[in-house]
Design a protein that fits this description.
The chain has 795 residues and is of the alpha+beta class. 43% of the residues lie in helices and 23% in strands. A hairpin with a 2-residue loop joins strand 4 (42-48) and strand 5. The radius of gyration is 27 Å and the shape is globular. The chain starts with a strand and ends with a helix. The model has no long low-confidence stretch (mean pLDDT 96).
Length: 795
């Protein structure tokens, strides 16, 4: 079956939140039946080649089966109607005080909720969209407007035909918009759009967007293919952003730069815009055959966005962020028994949403960074250009990419890639001195402390005095030279952990001056993982990281504080862990001092993180900071979360915080207030927050953050445990099909279950459905790891 074209003629009823559509599908096939995907649509009539056909709907399979054999070029015509619900998928309505915006979110299987189609990425087609809206409303789609006229009191907008593309990349947005634009490539437009009154005053999203497009055109060797690109701000949005071809959608926070914008959000704005723009080539122009290659889409955009931003914003040190945001999470998630290979078989639509995770984004991106370093950037770039050129406007699989990189490289690219993509997990390398050499042994690292004999083909980088050696480690064990050796995994480009013998570790510490911040990040992160897995005691762990705790690089401060604070959240009663946190955070706050005019963005970011954590564990400091809550607009944006957290701890008053929330204009200040509210305790406060979530005073997308943070708050986790069924029911009602329900379960169970080890499984069994099954398994595994750690620390 081949689909040539979908033509949608839509009439939107914005009062009743419904629409009707006359759809025409041009296709060719030799099939016994025409089978289309459809969910919650009312089909009135189907004609094939001018003949009215009977059809059956199979709700469980999300399919319509149309009678009649297909043997030639054919035309199907479908008249149907649909609703525009509030759930954040398909064609939905996002509500603000200024009015509704109707918008689409189709990845992965949302297109079938908007129109009957073959909702499969390998069935690419051209799209013709015509939409009738009430006068005064506007519409945005993938392509520019071709014609616009008023007919019978409605505005009829016809868009230019799209190139062939997958159904999940189609976009339609309807509302009253403000826009601002700039030109690129001579006559193409990059357009920033938001609901009336919501458009940022800053040009930063446009400027960074234009630079990113130019970077990719140069790197990929292919010009941006469409006549325009929209960056669209959506008030309520389950995903962070979505790469609809020519009409990218974002949460408001990612396009709204203002005086309230903190350093982490400013960096995220650039990275998220660069990520979605990378997809315009990798994902949109060339698309995966099927969802089991989703990782290739997401990991590529992840890696390329950091690469682009590292070039465009040199001061940001973006690959430091890459380690914190992508590699660290992937190394943790992939050390579970319940992890999955990067390449995973997808059979059911519910499985798709659950693999939008740290493996498909973070591990995939980290493997690409490793391969990029292994083959060199020039070779990588050349192979990528050949791949994109060969598959443009088509579909491809992951193995196709390795073929093209291997064609221009003399390295065993395919063997290395397959080893890391097809195996679940990753290697730990034990390194020790033996007979004047260094003996290396590899096996699978598991966070539960168990050992699994699996071998990878590891492209090692070994840092020696004066040089870095590249070595392929493809056996259970091997020997390398001891003379001049410093450490493995130069700048943490490899996706593996290294456990050094005491003598080798002491030698690393002696050479601390020649290590970069990414080397030290890796040593810290590995040590923490070895503590969690029972390979190091708390005493050994604190001893191993003690020298690094003296350093004042922003990345190192963030990582040490991440590790110490996460240990505190697991075992808040442990006086040694609390003491280590108190001492370290107080020391770094003193060193970071007050904000300086010309300081690096990462210093400001580190100060805010350290201050927020110190306020959480030090009541005196929280009381000092909480005084600034009344004049938050005068507070440095990076310190605002710490001030709001302090206010929540000191005053413990949800109504006052909800009042503050209602007065903030900027999404970022609202999000920080909601984060701080996770520190509230007491039934009255919990009830007030739940009421605000139900009444949408707290956006659905932000309620997830509240629940996940409250679960880690010692004073709120019992509330989350006792109300878990109700909370999950609420989340599932809005986020069904998005994977977010599974993610919430995975994040809350490791904390709320610590006092309920006997009962938690029974509680989870009551809410277990396919869509959250992976989250339950992972959450339970993390819970057992946390429980085992607490028991070891007692002894």
């Amino acid at each position: 079956m081949q689909i040539y074209n979908y033509s949608l003629d839509l009439d939107i009823n914005s009062k009743n939140y419904t629409y009707t559509c006359h759809e025409t599908i041009k296709f060719n096939g030799n099939e016994e039946k025409l089978i289309l995907n459809s969910v919650n649509l009312k089909i009135k009539r189907i004609k094939v080649n001018n003949s009215i056909k009977n059809f059956k709907e199979f709700i469980k399979n999300q399919e319509i089966v149309v009678d009649g054999i297909i043997t030639k070029d054919s035309v199907a015509e479908i008249d149907f109607s649909g609703e525009i619900p509030e759930e954040l998928q398909g064609f939905y309505r996002a509500h603000t005080e200024e009015g509704d915006m109707f918008t689409t979110q189709f990845e992965s299987t949302g297109a079938r909720r908007f129109f009957p189609c073959i909702d499969n990425p390998s069935y690419k087609a051209a799209f013709d969209i015509t939409v009738r809206v009430d006068e005064g409303l506007e519409a945005i789609s993938n392509m520019p407007v071709e014609t616009q006229e008023n007919v019978d009191g409605k505005t009829v907008i016809k868009f230019m035909q799209t190139p062939v593309m997958s159904t999940y990349l189609l976009y339609l947005g309807i509302g009253k918009f403000d826009e601002r634009s700039l030109e690129f490539n001579g006559n193409k437009k990059l357009i920033l759009a938001a609901q009336k009154g919501h458009l940022t005053e800053s040009n930063y999203p446009l400027e960074i967007g234009k630079k990113a497009i130019e970077f990719y055109q140069d790197y990929f060797g292919i010009d941006y293919p469409l006549p325009k690109e929209h960056l669209i701000s959506v008030p309520e949005f389950a995903a962070g952003a979505m790469e609809n071809w020519g009409a990218i959608t974002f949460r408001e926070i990612y396009l709204n730069i203002s005086s309230s914008t903190g350093s982490s959000v400013k960096k995220a704005v650039g990275e998220v815009i660069a990520h979605e723009l990378a997809h315009q080539w990798f994902g949109d122009l060339v698309t995966m055959n099927w969802w089991d290659d989703l990782w290739l889409n997401e990991s590529f955009a992840t890696f390329m966005s950091y690469k682009a931003m590292n070039k465009l914003e040199v001061d940001y040190d973006m690959f430091a962020d890459f380690l914190v945001s992508e590699t660290a999470g992937a190394l943790e998630g992939d050390s579970l028994v319940n992890s999955h290979p990067i390449e995973v078989e997808v059979k059911h639509p519910d499985d798709i949403s659950q693999i939008f995770d740290e493996i498909s984004y973070g591990k995939g991106g980290s493997i690409l960074r490793m391969i990029n370093a292994f083959v060199t950037d020039d070779v990588f770039k050349k192979g990528l250009h050949l791949y994109l050129e060969n598959f443009k406007y088509k579909n491809a699989s992951g193995s196709d990419l390795w073929e093209f990189i291997a064609k221009v490289s003399d390295r065993p690219v395919r063997k290395v890639m397959e080893s890391f993509i097809q195996n679940v997990g990753y290697p730990i390398i034990e390194a020790k001195e033996e007979g004047g050499k260094i003996k290396l042994t590899q096996y699978r690292f598991l966070l539960n402390g168990k050992k699994q004999n699996v071998q990878w083909k590891i492209p090692l980088t070994a840092k020696y005095a004066g040089e870095v050696k590249s070595i392929l480690f493809d056996s259970e064990s091997m020997e390398i030279d001891l003379q001049g050796f410093i450490k493995l995994n130069d700048s943490e480009t490899g996706f593996y952990r290294v456990l050094y013998s005491d003598s080798l570790y002491e030698n690393i510490i002696k050479n601390i001056a020649i290590l970069d911040n990414k080397d030290i990040f890796g040593l810290l992160n590995d040590s923490h993982a070895f503590l969690m897995a029972g390979k190091l005691t708390l005493k050994e762990y604190l001893s191993r990281i003690s020298k690094f705790m003296e350093l004042n690089d922003s990345l190192i401060i963030r990582e040490v504080s991440n590790e110490l604070f996460s240990l505190y959240l697991v075992d808040p009663e442990n006086s040694e862990i609390l003491g280590a946190n108190m001492e370290y955070l107080a020391d770094k706050l003193k060193i970071l001092g007050d904000k300086q005019k010309s300081e690096n963005i990462n210093v400001s970011l580190a100060r805010g993180i350290v201050a927020n954590r110190f306020a959480t564990i030090n009541r005196g400091y929280a009381e000092e900071l909480s005084k600034f809550a009344g004049s938050l607009d005068q507070v440095d944006p990076d310190m605002r979360l710490a001030v709001l957290t302090s206010y929540a701890i000191v005053h413990n008053d949800a109504e006052k915080m909800l009042d503050m929330l209602s007065k903030f204009k900027q999404d970022e200040d609202k999000v920080k207030t909601i984060q701080a509210m996770a520190m509230l305790t007491g039934d009255n406060n919990f009830d007030a927050v739940e009421k605000a979530i139900s009444e949408r005073k707290i956006k659905a997308q932000d309620s997830l953050r509240y629940y996940m943070l409250a679960a880690a708050n010692p004073g709120a986790k019992e509330y989350i445990y006792n109300n878990l069924e109700n909370i999950m029911e609420k989340i599932q009602a809005i986020f069904a099909g998005s994977g977010y329900s599974s993610r919430v379960i995975e994040m809350v169970v490791p904390f709320i279950g610590l006092n309920h080890m006997e009962e938690i499984e029974g509680k989870l069994a009551k809410i277990n459905i396919q869509e959250i099954s992976r989250g339950i398994k992972k959450g339970m595994e993390y819970l057992n790891i946390n429980h085992d750690l607490v028991e070891r620390l007692k002894n």
